[in-house]
Amino acid sequence: MQFCEVVGQQSLKKHLIDLINRNHMPHACMLLGKEGSGGLPLALATAQYIMCKNRSEFDSCGDCAACIKNKKLQHPDVHYSFPTFKKDNNKTPVSNDFIVDFREQILKQPYLDDTYWLKALDTEKQGNITANECREIIQKLQLRSFESKYKVLIMWYPEYLGNEGNVLLKLIEEPTTNTILLFVAHNLEKVLLTIQSRTQLFMLERLQETEIQKALIEQQVNPEEALQIARLADGNYFQAQQLLITHDDDLILLLRTWLNCLYANKGIELVNWITEISEKSKDAQKKFLQYYMQLLEEAIRAQHIGIQHLTLLETEQKIIEILLAKGVNYTLVNTICSMIDESIYQIERNANTKILFHSLSLRIQQLIFKQKAIA
User: Fold this and answer.
1) Sign of the CA dihedral 136, 141, 144, 147?
2) Cα separation of 107 and 74, whole Å?
3) How would you classify residue 36: left for phi > 0, otherwise alpha for psi between -120 and 50, otherwise beta?
4) What's the predicted TM-score (pTM) here?
5) How far apart are CA 273 and CA 261, in angstroms?
6) What is the pLDDT of residues 63-95, one digit of tens each?
7) Potential cystine with 60: which of 52, 135, 196, 211 (Cβ 3.0-4.6 Å)?
């Protein structure tokens, strides 16, 4: 992977490139960022840049033999460690047992998370990075490099290292010559303190809506749909990719119909709407509620900074203008958002969605009428 393929993270990409070109790259790095922010893609791009034979001051060439092998995750001097699980046999698992699956999944979606990874392996077992895996890493990195001046280890989710991770401490403190260790973490509190203290921390920034929208547009997604998805993704590019697969509902039309039923007190139409939304998937229902909550939050922002300063679709702007005209305020939005959070929680726990959306609709309508009476 090249740096140009990594969404956002411009300042960190520039910093890593500068360190490599000045031969100041730390031998043990911790790339820390929220899931979907691009830690693994950034590690892959860093490894490819280190190995590239014709790199520029901005990126790897993408065409040399080293780059081609890195693109396929098959460079002999780049090693990968990641969560695995014990199969039915008695052998303690190591990453090499799953490397074919790893390549397949990462080449398909480099922004995936550990939940998706373990699910792709068709298991509900707990993932782990074993002591046996740590010893194998040490053995690999003690060997001479095959083709490159450097050897690189990418450990994805060091959070899965238990106390057995202490086996790696001597390697981290005194690595073999020209060895770079890249740890890709998402929750620093779950990483062993002994490993944290021996690595240099590099923080990934939360991806902006505009960065996600731009990346989606480059995939031929129309700008309006890309903006909707970017907003729902909440800084997680993997979530944006998942939403792109399932984004077949017209959220705005669904929301406008619902609000019209609530504000105009159209009971029969509301029952029809509840039937429609209850027949959708759980993910679609949660996505709809999250979208409504985000528009309510945008309405509050519009009150403070002006609607002209927000990045909105024309139809979204009209909805927000109507909501503001009908007296939407911080207190009302805060109460409705609490109700929505609770509804999403119940959906995840397989609540009866017909009853849930009926109850939610009536409670929101009650708030609306109470607000109207006060006004």
Assistant:
1) positive
2) 11
3) left
4) 0.74
5) 9
6) 999 999 999 999 999 999 999 887 766 677 888
7) 52
